[in-house]
Every structure is written in structure tokens, then in C-alpha cells.
């Protein structure tokens, strides 16, 4: 399907990630005339499953069903036959301190320190304080580097850039389940019948006339209402413009919710170099070297001879600037410090995600800047009564997640239908 010059429809959906696809599902169910337009050459957005690098499904973006018992994708997975891996810290998890594995007592102390850091940030936010997380963290603990890493991993920003209030607004639970067949694959399977026009970036939405005009490389799409389901960075960087320009308070809201950096490096080996059970989890950092940060890794996903190494925050941003080779080297060095340098000679494949460098993505997920948490709610307000925003930044208490994006897409589509007098 292609967008053609002066094509018309009732509702246009800009972006075919989890939010845009959900909007398409709702519009299709209502029998509305609609178009879903995607800048990339594939749908799914930050839900992308790679099967080539390790020969098994590996998610380059979202992987976990957060708050799984309340997560709509749990039922979707069951309906579509996707297996889920359940469990929390009872999973096989190791902590490496740079020269050796931690003892059970040390590991227990480490996770208590990490939990205390998260609790301090949440308590400050629940008390109404909107300050940098770094301002309330316990200082000088033995495992402070690990705590900072996990805050960056969860919020895509170092603690200096995390809003305590925004963090406290997020709904958390111990139920984090893996989609074993790939979350990206699940998102696409759920929306398999939603038609999407690919490789067709929308450069501007002209809202000056009685109908909206979406300007694309393939022509202009005219519509009565639009669901804009793109990452916040796409708008703040000017990849998607508006005429007339967005109201200043709305511009401020998008700018207050930048996308941070969390990236994955997938390493494949020609044999098992770990000696650990399938789907083991590893956290590693070097004591006394906080500037090196920490990494987390999923070891032997689905039994493959490989690992998925996660880097987050400022260290990940620096590596991104240096390029994919630097990211791979960082991940290999981290694994070699744990399992020995010989593993470097056994590498057969490597791939790094590049979300922060992708023009129509721009990062991992949104986090409000300190002092700006209240602006997240502004994004949920319609523009001109006919433009409705969606995406992980609008996931309510499930912001920064795929299911939050999914729910926001359903809500935006429902509002768009109401605006044109359609629906149930």
C-alpha cells in the first residue's frame, strides 16, 4: 500500500511502533477509514526481535512484560501461543566484582543496597519532591556503582538526570516476565492484519485548514483526525514539524521528556564460553572503578552460545558516539573480565542496538527531567481537538514500557474516533 498525492482518509496514524499499531487495531475494529504511516522500513519501532545473530529470538528493544499480571500483552501472548518466562530474583543470577564472583552474603548486601537506592528515590517522589535522584541517594556504599547502574538501566538516564517525582509515578511490581519468542515478534503478530505504509516519513502536519494535511515524501495525506505515535525525540529534533507550530507549553512538555540511552550488545560465540545454565543473569562491575560503571547480561538465551549485554546512561551515550565497534568491545571486555580473555577468540557474531542514533527514534524510553515531571500529563491533551498523541511517554503509570505505549494507542484511537463521530 502506498500513500499517493492528495490521498484522503478519516484518521491517519503516524508511527507504527507498539502505540501506532494498537491505534490501527482499534480503528480497524471500528471499521474506520485509516492509514498507518511509518518512517522506517519495518514496523514495530522499539519492539524489534532479531533471530539472525544468535539463531534464537533476541529482543533489541523491549523484552520484559513489566507488571505482567496487569499487562495486556500477557493475555495477547497466551492467545497467540507465545511462551512467557516467569520469575524474579529467584532466577539464576550472578554478581561479579571485577576479580571474582560475589559470595551469597555479598550478593545479598548488594541487592539490599540497590533496593535502598530505589526506595529513597521513590520516597522522595511520593513526598512530592521533584529533584534529581542523585540528590537523595545513599552515598558511599560499597555497591553504589551497581545501584547507579540499575537506576540508569530502569530510567535510561544517570541519577543526575532522573526526576524523583516522575520515577514515583511509575507503577512497579515484582512481576516481570520475559517473552521467550521475542516481544518484538509478539507486537507484530498481534497487529499482523494492520496495513502499514513503510519507508514513508511524515515531515510536517499542516493543521491550518479544515482537514489535516500530512506531508510525506510520497505526497500529501488529508485526514479528519490524526494519532501521532512517534517518540518524543522525533518532535523535539524537528523530524516531524507542525504548521502552525505547536503551542509553547506543548513544546516544553516534549522537551521535558527526552529519551535516554539504554543499548544492547548481542554477542555470539562458536561454543559455550560461560558454563552457566540457560537464561542466567549476570551483573558485573569493578570495585574501586566507578567511572567504568556496570553491565548486566542475559547469558545463553534459549540455550544459544551467546549473551545480550546491556549498557545504560552516560557510559552508553559515550559508547554510542564512538560507534558500534566501541560498544561491542566494551561488552566483550566486560565478559572477558568475568569469564576470561579466551572468549574473545571464540566470537562468531556481534550486533549492537543503536536506538539513540536512529533518526526516527532517538533513544530508549522517556524520562522526565528533574523539576519537569508534571509536564508528562500535558502530552495527553489533544491538539485542536483532532490531533492525539500516543507512545510510551503517554503510558500513564506504565510509561517507558511497550504495554504503556499499546494502551496509549488504544486511547488515542478511541479519542480520534469520537472526534469524527465514529466508534462503537
SSE diagram, text form:
Elements: E1 7-14, H1 18-29, E2 34-37, E3 49-50, E4 58-59, E5 64-65, H2 72-80, E6 84-85, E7 93-96, H3 104-126, H4 144-155, H5 164-169, E8 177-179, H6 183-190, E9 202-206, E10 212-216, E11 219-228, H7 232-236, E12 241-243, H8 248-255, E13 262-269, E14 280-285, E15 294-299, E16 306-312, H9 313-322, H10 324-339, E17 347-352, E18 387-389, H11 402-419
Parallel strand pairs: 1-2, 1-11, 7-14, 9-12, 11-18
Antiparallel strand pairs: 3-4, 5-8, 6-8, 9-10, 10-11, 13-16, 13-17, 14-15, 15-16
How would you portray this structure in words?
There is one protein chain. The protein is α/β, with parallel strands linked by helices and 424 residues long. It folds into 2 domains: 7-43 and 191-258 and 361-419, 3-Layer(bba) Sandwich (FAD/NAD(P)-binding domain); 89-173 and 260-357, Polyamine Oxidase, Chain A, domain 2 (Alpha-Beta Complex). Helix content is 30%, strand content 20%. It is built from 11 helices and 18 strands. Strands 1, 2, 9, 10, 11, 12 and 18 form a 7-stranded mixed beta sheet that branches. β15 (294-299) and β16 (306-312) form a beta hairpin. The relative contact order is 0.21. The mean pLDDT is 94.
Amino acid at each position: 500500500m502506498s500513500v499517493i498525492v492528495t490521498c484522503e482518509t478519516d484518521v491517519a496514524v503516524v508511527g507504527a511502533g507498539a502505540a501506532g499499531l494498537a491505534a490501527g487495531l482499534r480503528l480497524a475494529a471500528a471499521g474506520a477509514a485509516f492509514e498507518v504511516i511509518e518512517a522506517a522500513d519495518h514496523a514495530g519501532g522499539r519492539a524489534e526481535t532479531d533471530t539472525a545473530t544468535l539463531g534464537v529470538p533476541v529482543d533489541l528493544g523491549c523484552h520484559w512484560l513489566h507488571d505482567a499480571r496487569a499487562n495486556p500483552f500477557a493475555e495477547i501472548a497466551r492467545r497467540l501461543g507465545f511462551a512467557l518466562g516467569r520469575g524474579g530474583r529467584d532466577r539464576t543470577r550472578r554478581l561479579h566484582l571485577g576479580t571474582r564472583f560475589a559470595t551469597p552474603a555479598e550478593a545479598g548486601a548488594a541487592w539490599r543496597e540497590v533496593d535502598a537506592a530505589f526506595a529513597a528515590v521513590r520516597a522522595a517522589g511520593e513526598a512530592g519532591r521533584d529533584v534529581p535522584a542523585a540528590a537523595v541517594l545513599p552515598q558511599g556504599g560499597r555497591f553504589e556503582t551497581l545501584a547507579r547502574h540499575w537506576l540508569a538501566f530502569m530510567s535510561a538516564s544517570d541519577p543526575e538526570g532522573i526526576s524523583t517525582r516522575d520515577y514515583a509515578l511509575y507503577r512497579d511490581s515484582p512481576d516481570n516476565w520475559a517473552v521467550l519468542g521475542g516481544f518484538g515478534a509478539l507486537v507484530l503478530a498481534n497487529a499482523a492484519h494492520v496495513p502499514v505504509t513503510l519507508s514513508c516519513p511524515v515531515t510536517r502536519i499542516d493543521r491550518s485548514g479544515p482537514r489535516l494535511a500530512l506531508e510525506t515524501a510520497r505526497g500529501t495525506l488529508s485526514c479528519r483526525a490524526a494519532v501521532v505515535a512517534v517518540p518524543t525525540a522525533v518532535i523535539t529534533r524537528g523530524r516531524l514539524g507542525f504548521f502552525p507550530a505547536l503551542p509553547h507549553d506543548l513544546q516544553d512538555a516534549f522537551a521535558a521528556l527526552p529519551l535516554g540511552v539504554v543499548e544492547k550488545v548481542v554477542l555470539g560465540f562458536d561454543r559455550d564460553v560461560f558454563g552457566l545454565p540457560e537464561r542466567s543473569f549476570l551483573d558485573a562491575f569493578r570495585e574501586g572503578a566507578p567511572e567504568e560503571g556496570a553491565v548486566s547480561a542475559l547469558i545463553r538465551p534459549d540455550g544459544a552460545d551467546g549473551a545480550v549485554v546491556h549498557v545504560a546512561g552516560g557510559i552508553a551515550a559515550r559508547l554510542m558516539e564512538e560507534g558500534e565497534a566501541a560498544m561491542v568491545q566494551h561488552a566483550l571486555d566486560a565478559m572477558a573480565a568475568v569469564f576470561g580473555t579466551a572468549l574473545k577468540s571464540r566470537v562468531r557474531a556481534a550486533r549492537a542496538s543503536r536506538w539513540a542514533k536512529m533518526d526516527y527514534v532517538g533513544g530508549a524510553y522517556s524520562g522526565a527531567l528533574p523539576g519537569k515531571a508534571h509536564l508528562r500529563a500535558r502530552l495527553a491533551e489533544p491538539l485542536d481537538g483532532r490531533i492525539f498523541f500516543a507512545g510510551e511517554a503517554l503510558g500513564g503509570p506504565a510509561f517507558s514500557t511497550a504495554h504503556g505505549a499499546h494502551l496509549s494507542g488504544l486511547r488515542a484511537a478511541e479519542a480520534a474516533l469520537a472526534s469524527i463521530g465514529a466508534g462503537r
